[in-house]
Amino acid sequence: MRRFYAPNVAPGPHSLGADEARHLGQVLRARPGDAVELADGRGAVFPAEVVSIGKREALLHVGVPTCFPSPTPELTLWVAPTKHTDRFEWFLEKACECGVTRIQPIWTARSERRVEKRERWQRTLAEAMKQSRRAWLPELAPAVSLDAALSSLEPAEGEGPWLGLAHCPVPEHPNWVRQSIQSALPQQRDALIAIGPEGDFTSEEIESFGSAGFTPVTFGEHRLRTETAALFAVQAFHILNHP
Amino acid sequence: MRRFYAPNVAPGPHSLGADEARHLGQVLRARPGDAVELADGRGAVFPAEVVSIGKREALLHVGVPTCFPSPTPELTLWVAPTKHTDRFEWFLEKACECGVTRIQPIWTARSERRVEKRERWQRTLAEAMKQSRRAWLPELAPAVSLDAALSSLEPAEGEGPWLGLAHCPVPEHPNWVRQSIQSALPQQRDALIAIGPEGDFTSEEIESFGSAGFTPVTFGEHRLRTETAALFAVQAFHILNHP
User: Fold this and answer.
1) ipTM computed for the complex
2) Which residues of A144-171 are buried (b: 16+ CB within 10 A; e: fewer)?
């Protein structure tokens, strides 16, 4: 069943805009009477029937949704957009497929080309949500500086998320200990994992993370690109929480 | 330390060809006396010193290598090249970073555009090997049909690799049971995992895998693209074998 993303859908008549109407009519060759699904990205998936298709609009009749609970535990990733946006977009697509909850882009001391392509990144996530048949769209927070992100961490009432920090070995501090993510990550608990940017965090940044209560972790002895490490975190979180 | 791939290097004088000489001189701005490393892709990493750099050649003096054992256990992936080669190349890069041993491209009943870009794929793997500072280059087997791949499986003397098959639910056989990769994969044992292509294996193909002794596994309830599933297998193998 073909699925569309429709953030503001409700039962009753619903109109798809020009882009999706064109996709439905010209690419999928849908006809009046065909069944499709609409996902609102917040857990509700609606059955719908095509009423009419034109070049600029498609009219659907929408039924009563099935609601899916939000996946738990929740994973938030802090990750610096890469210099080449295609590597970051690749990561967004894969992270959505593999079930990330929230992505916080951060600007770090070594971030180059601080260009936030927010609309494009949102579209990448929505496409991946539809393609992987998820009911929940990952949240994409506006990019902020690392300092602002650290300041925004609220003292948790009760047990907050587990805080993990993935970075490379630091030449200035060769004896800083990093556990493997497999041994460090607690099961069935929300987590927030920060991923070293291209060129890695500076040792001052790593110290700030330490003061904020982050546990340093490693994903193995080899050097992973930023987007590979970020996806590794998502997949490790999935594997360790769904035994 | 900058690392180069040099499959036939030995201690003594060594000449880098035009491409790498240009990279060394114009991109990295190396000068005579600078130190670099050469990896032969089979576990040996050689220290080397730049003797001279020209436009068409760079001359190095190569020292005695450090040898790294091949990573164990070994993971072989059978995976169908995707319709768009960039998705497959992305997978090759990431799989190398994350430690795959061997990749066997296969043509399946639903494979479209059967174009084997072998040289390009080899270059992608070599680049990822250098970038992630690995000493071993993953083996890229020539593409074969699924039938040929299955026929080539030899009856193992003693315990052969564990055989896993990742595919989507099959409408014709809704009750076929698939275990999660986390619960099915034995630890510290070589494995061969076959990944469903775009459009998935046909139910006849899945039956052939079953006759050959493959265990059906799933990577979760959501639909993963072929290249995402293939990388998920590599990362699950890493996490489950390096606790």
Assistant:
1) 0.91
2) bebeebbeeeeeeeeeebbbbbbbeebe
| % residues pLDDT > 90 (chain A) | 79
Residue B232 Cα, gap to closest chain A Cα (Å): 7
* Longest CA span, chain B: 67
- CA B192/CA B121 separation, integer angstroms: 20
At A194-232, the pLDDT tens digits run 999 999 999 999 999 999 999 999 998 889 999 999 999
Residues 122 to 161 of A: which have CB under 8 A from any B CB? 131-134
Q: Are A162 and A96 in contact (CB under 8 A)?
A: no
Fold: same for A3-67 and A75-241: no
Q: Say if CB B30 and CB B50 are below 8 A apart.
A: yes
Considering only alpha carbons, which residue of chain A is nearest residue B92? A228
Q: Which CATH class is domain B3-67?
A: mainly beta
The C-alpha atoms of residue B5 and residue B171 are separated, in whole angstroms, by 47
Question: Which CATH architecture best describes the domain B75-241?
Answer: 3-Layer(aba) Sandwich (3.40)
- How high is the pLDDT of residue A67? 97
